[in-house]
Amino acid sequence: MLATRHSDGYMKSKDSSSPTASSVRQFWLNVVAEDREVEMRIHPAVAVLAMSRWDTAYRWILARTRAAGVTCKGDQPATTADERAALRKVCWDMADDLYARGSTEHGRLALCWLMLAADPRYPATLWPVMPALQWVVDEAELDEEETVAAALRLTVWWKAAAGESTKEKMSLFALAADLENQAVTDLKDPVVSDGPGVVVMPKAKASKLKSEHAPYKDLVGVKLPLVVARDVAGVRRTLLAEYPHAAAAIDLVLRDLREGEPVRLKPMLLVGPPGNGKSRLIRRLGDLLGGIGVFRFDGGSSADAIGYGGTPRGWSDSTPCVPARAVQTYRQANPIVMVDELEKACANTRNGALWHVLLQHLERETAARMRDVSLDAEMDLSWVNHLATANSTEGLPAPLRDRYRIVKVPAPALDHLPALAGTVLREIAAENGEQGFVQPLAGDELDVIAKAWQRAGFSIRKLQKIVAATVEARDAVAMRH
Amino acid sequence: MTEADDKLREDLAFYERGGLPSPEDLEKAPRIDLWRVVVQPHGDQHVMRVTGIVSRRPNMAPVSEIETAPVRWVDRGFLFVRTRNTLYELGEPAEEPAVPV
């Protein structure tokens, strides 16, 4: 009910300067991160209000109190309700000590300590806090968005003071952060509800998330958009012009796209010699398909290989599986996950299980009900597009090879040089922010490039270096003139 | 900004520095016994009020039930509350506030 009221509030002010999810987040990040700014314009209790964990607040207040020249007892971490309860007496005493010093600075810190001593199970512990905290927030010079964010968190504290949270084991900091995440999710709903979409993390099948997975809270129960294929013919034309050597491959890659329908490609493995533009082709495909996210996973790096399937929840820093990370990063239900150098990932015996994990993700029915071991949530990852690159299919386990459509990307030949060099030149110009100001390569320049490229074995990666060197040489000559 | 607001601001700043009303001020202030704290939604915000039996209140019956205006400050020893216009002494609570510290 609470979140609804606030999300209504957001909606009403939408036309003017309505706060966005990111700006609310950003405010809290600023408040917490910029100590100096906090000292200048914000009461420390407002900064404490912005914190999402009791122990974060505890450490911060401890440091601030010590900086104010006051000796503090104890520096124990407290993560459970019982551990916090044991420390609350210390916090209460700290407030007494600070108030006895008779200065505004110490008094303000005393209020922070009372916030730490506040326990939702005992509403009376909040009574001395709330009128003062409300006053502090009212007096703080916050802009409209910040005021909304602060009011949202204050509501949680007030409700606890009213005795509505006496069964809660979580700290007020965590409760407030939870509500804020919920409100932010409500904010995002109307934005993504147009067009086709999929709820990747159904609420009923998700456990309570750990704090390190806070970014995933936004996904719970939310319909994420499916990127739709638009102007497939135009995409094809552009790709053919830029990668003339890969014409057959491009047609195979685009085969599954249907105009106006969500992008859903069969798993594909682009095979070809090193440096022939396989990964670039996939990235470019993402750009051209309406900004569909391309999440790269490096098969050559063993550290990465461990992480494809995610690490279990019990680990201290557990990481969700790569497709889930891609969905979260791009907030799309069908991003592209690109495994680079797949054969290296599979050859690495230390990570023998990688291809096993991959198989599960490539199977749509399994992927539709994938339980992520880190988030402990069932996810529908069946819309994630799986593309991979490899220098050869040798050494790939047969079951894995069978799952992919193998797309051969040949090495370019000398004939393709003018088109490819043009593509590379445009990329260099775009990187330097000089789009439209770069002279096309002249005939004599192309001749020089052709010779160098031939020696380099027709690798696009090498071509980039050669063209870059040519442009640099050209600039140097221009300066001399 | 009225005189009452100025006085309130001055008092809140004083309480923030750890100050307490003097015993003389408290003796002169209306006293609330059998008090309870009530927290209610009020517009977009919440407010805290105190209900109970008030005595020593000028221009009113010697003893009557009261619900205060929104409370602007309560001390952690529950000795007094301050509303915009009035300082109240807190007497006997209806139930001892549970503060397990």
Mind sketching the topology for me?
The complex is a heterodimer of chains A (481) and B (101).
Chain A: H1 2-12, H2 21-33, H3 35-41, H4 44-49, H5 54-67, H6 81-99, H7 104-117, H8 130-139, H9 144-161, H10 172-192, E1 197-199, H11 214-217, E2 223-225, H12 232-242, H13 247-254, E3 268-271, H14 278-288, E4 294-298, H15 302-306, H16 322-330, E5 336-340, H17 342-347, H18 354-362, H19 364-367, E6 370-372, E7 377-379, E8 385-390, H20 398-403, E9 405-408, H21 417-431, H22 443-455, H23 460-480
Parallel strand pairs in A: 3-8, 3-9, 4-5, 5-8
Antiparallel strand pairs in A: 1-2, 6-7
Chain B: H1 3-16, H2 23-28, E1 31-42, E2 45-55, E3 63-67, E4 71-74, E5 80-83, E6 87-90
Parallel strand pairs in B: 1-6
Antiparallel strand pairs in B: 1-2, 2-3, 4-5, 5-6
Describe this entry's structure for a reader.
The complex is a heterodimer of chains A (481) and B (101). By secondary structure, chain A is α/β, with parallel strands linked by helices. Chain A has 3 domains: 2-191, no CATH class; 232-408, P-loop containing nucleotide triphosphate hydrolases (Rossmann fold, 3-Layer(aba) Sandwich); 414-480, no CATH class. Helix content of chain A is 53%, strand content 7%. Chain A contains 23 helices and 9 strands. Chain A has helices at residues 2-12, 21-33, 35-41, 44-49, 54-67, 81-99, 104-117, 130-139, 144-161, 172-192, 214-217, 232-242, 247-254, 278-288, 302-306, 322-330, 342-347, 354-362, 364-367, 398-403, 417-431, 443-455, 460-480; strands spanning 197-199, 223-225, 268-271, 294-298, 336-340, 370-372, 377-379, 385-390, 405-408. A 5-stranded parallel sheet of chain A has the order 4-5-8-3-9, sandwiched between helices. Chain A has a two-stranded antiparallel ribbon with strand order 1-2. In chain A, a hairpin with a 4-residue loop joins β6 (370-372) and β7. Chain B starts with a helix and ends in an 11-residue tail after the last strand. By secondary structure, chain B is of the alpha+beta class. Chain B has one domain. A 6-stranded mixed sheet of chain B has the order 3-2-1-6-5-4, with helices on one face. Classes of the chains: A alpha/beta (481), B alpha+beta (101).
